[in-house]
Structures are given as structure tokens and as C-alpha cells.
Amino acid sequence: MDLPFIVATLTRRGLLTPGSPIRVASQLNALRTWGWSLAGELRQAAARDPGRPAVIDENGVELTYHDLLDRAERMARSMRAGLGVQAGDRIGVLCRNHSGLIETIVAATLLGVDAVLVNTGLSAAQLGTVAEEQRLRLLVHDDEFAERVLGLPAELSRLDERAREELVAGALPGDLHPPERDGRIIVLTSGTTGTPKGARRPTPSGFGPLVSIIDRIPLHARDRVMIAAPIFHTWGFAALQVCLALRATIVLHRRFDPAATLAALTAHQCNALFAVPVMVQRLMEVPPPDPRPPLTVVAVSGSALPGGLAPKFMDVYGDVLYNLYGSTEVSWASIAGPQDLRQAPTAAGRPPHGTRLELLDDDGQPVPDGRVGRIFVGNEMLFEGYTSGANRETRDGLLDTGDLGRLNADGLLFVDGRADDMIVSGGENVFPSEVEDLLAQLPQVREAAVIGVPDPEYGQRLSAFLALHPGETLDPEAVREYVRHFLARFSVPRDVIFVKYLPRNATGKVLTRELRRYYG
């Protein structure tokens, strides 16, 4: 990435403002010594703004950047001296969004330890598989998961919240030096179809990744930001990285509640919110506060925006919505801003600076605008492969996302869905997202999902699962007639099933395997 662009963006976002020469020198030295790992980012923030609130929890308790770094260092020293954790080990982190999660991940990177971010929605059986496949040396977990970890091997050390606090409080004095190897952050894939895979995230090598994001999403130094997206997910972790780089004040709640989130945004005067789309949908189901929180950015990622949600949200909270399309493997691919979403509410946007995006056919040739192709992406933060040793297909330095999409004449990307989710009914290709977006626009519908199920005549048929707003009713035939009016006959769901809610994982993705259980 070219230096003038980096300097211009950092200046525009307030990261190159003058400061105390001693603190600026200490900040730069922290990055030079520790790099752009999470430990380096926290160190530079603590060097420049030691007294600034770093984290505010749901009870209003604040930790300054100095305190957050001190606690992370104390935990690192205790893990090394008391538990024998050393560079190259792997620890699991099974925590919701709170300061202890940040301290644990930073402590791991200070030691050159790989931190496996464990999805809080995993079952006990899945957790056991992850512990075995990732060869965990230690598991740090919140108290609420105590029963879920009972069945793990006895030789796997475990730290609950009390034990973690004892490690921090009882740390012996000592120095920490940059480890011989960088610890990796291992993010588990969403696991909507089975046991998740571990994806090794690279450590940024400079300002490029940060600049790619904040050039398109107008976040600034010392913002006040609520991270509602789970930090164990790629999007929530990316939000944490950005916030530490910006020396932002981070507001965290362990669980998402729409009313509590709006209250916190107002009480702490947050100007930015990181969330997943279903959270934005839930915010629209409660009355907006008066006055509104001073939001200038609501950044979402992790799953597709439901049809019609973007303009409805912006009509209430202003043109502040930004939709990032990416994945655990490619990090980011494109970003849609408010103007894009006003023009096309389901748009995935355009690739940011330094990102290559191509739509290819099965032979690896580019497809023309308007035609569906496989989405390939290249940027500075492509993952380093799965911990199992497997990888994804690459072409000319671009990584296959596994998604299908198309570009319109204005260069906007639209994602039609996973390649393996495409439904072939009677020889016709149907993308569930197109039908889902249409169904979501029915005023009675709270959320919708469409899957393909086996059919003896057509090979597959469409099955629509609808969760309605309280007190609403719909007739299945009326639903089919509605779809028939707008789409081709092969896009009409043969089955229309009403459910109380759609099963989702912690990042908001619909668990299609749970829907298939309806058919046994």
C-alpha cells in the first residue's frame, strides 16, 4: 500500500496529531519492538494515552489503558511461571465480551502463545473435539460454562474467572520480552454445518490493514465504541484490533440485549457500534431512545443484511450504516457505505484500497457484469490456512471465498450465497438469499430462511421457514402467491413452515442443519 495514502488516511482519522514527544516516542517504540500484534497495539495505546478509559463493562466499571496492559502483563507472567505456558503452546479462550477476554488474548500474544477463540455457542461434544484437534494446553473460560467443560480431558488445565483473577493478583515481578515466535490468533469458522475448523489469522505487518478499513468506515482516534459483535468471531476481533489501534474507549456487554445496548450507547455517548446484522434487526424492534445516541458509524458484518433492513434502520438512526462483506479466511472483501445501501439495500459494496476482487467461472475466467461467478479476494490479511493443514483454492494470489456473487454496472458487489447452498430444483438454480430478501419484506415477517430439501420429482424443492412478529398470522398459500408474483415459478417455496424463531449461532448465522431436522 502506498505511503502517501497511508499518511493521508491516518491524518484524516486523527492518528497523526501532535502529542507529548516522550509519549509519541514511547508509542512508536512499542510498535517497533512488539509489532502490530494485539500486544503491540495495546502497548502503543498505553504509551500514548495511559489514563484514557480503555474498557467500560456493563456495570460501568472502567479500566484505563495503563491498567488493562498491567493486568495482561501480570496474567502473562503468572501463566508462564505458575502454569508453565510457553511460546508455541495453544490456549483456548471461552469467554463472552468483557475485559478478561482481552487480557487473556493479550497475555497469550505477549508470550508467543496461540490463542484459540472458542465460540460460546459450541456444545460440550463440539468443545471436546475442538480441544483435541487444537491440542489445547489450557482453557480459560467464563463461570457460566463450568458445566460444559466438565467432560474435557483431565490433563487439560482450566481457569475459571476466580482462578484468572488470582493469577492476575498473585503475579510475581519480572520482565516480558518479545517472544521468539509470534503467537497466532486462531478463529474458529462459524460451524453452521458441523464442527468448526481453526483458521490461523496473520499478524498485521504495518498500518495497511487498519487504513483499508478506516478509509471507508469513518472511525477516528479516541472514539467511543461499543463492540456488540462477539469478539471470538472474526468481525468482533477485527473491531477490537481497530479500537486498540485508534486508542478508543471500548464498551462491552457479555450478552446482547437491544434495549440495554441502546441505553449503553446513549449513557456512554458512543459514536460507533460494531454488530452483526441480526443485532441491528433486533434494535429496530425496540423504541429508539430520546435523544438518540450520537452514532456516526454502525458497522456490521458476519452475515447478509436482510432485505429492506438498511433503509429502515437509517431512517431512524441516520445514514450511519456500513456493511462489510468478508470471511474468516479472507478478512474483508468489500464495504458498502450508507449511499450504497440507500441505492441497493442488499449490496456488499466495493473492495477497499489495496484489495483485489474478481468473479470467476469454474475455469478461472472472469465473468461479465451481471453474471454470477465465484468470488475470489486478495488482500494483506488472507488467512494462513486451517490448523488441520488444509487450505482453500487460490488463483493468481486470490483466495476462494466459497461464495457466489455478481457485480452490477456501477461496480457494486452482490453476494448470492454460498456455492454449496445453491438449490437446484427441476434443473433451475435458485439462490436462497433472493427468496429470503423478498419474504423479509412482508410486514408480518420478523425473519425468514429458505433451504433446499430432497424432492423425488424435482431433485430439490424450496422450503421457507418464517418467524412472524407477535400477533401476526399468514396463510402458506398467500406466501407462495406473493413469491410467485415477483419471482419465477421455480423460486416459489413448496413448503412454508412457521416457527417461533430461527436457530442462529452466536454470530447471527442461521443454523440450516437445525432447520433440516424438521424433515428428520
UniProtKB/TrEMBL annotation:
InterPro entries: AMP-bd_C (IPR025110), AMP-bd_C_sf (IPR045851), AMP-binding_CS (IPR020845), AMP-dep_synth/lig_dom (IPR000873), ANL_N_sf (IPR042099)
Assigned keywords, A-Z: Ligase
A GO term for molecular function: ligase activity
Keyword Ligase: yes
Chain ranges of the AMP-binding enzyme C-terminal domain: 434-509
Keyword Ligase appears in the UniProt entry: yes
Domain AMP-dependent synthetase/ligase: 43-386
Similarity comment: family membership: Belongs to the ATP-dependent AMP-binding enzyme family.
Protein name: Long-chain-fatty-acid--CoA ligase
Organism the protein comes from: Micromonospora saelicesensis
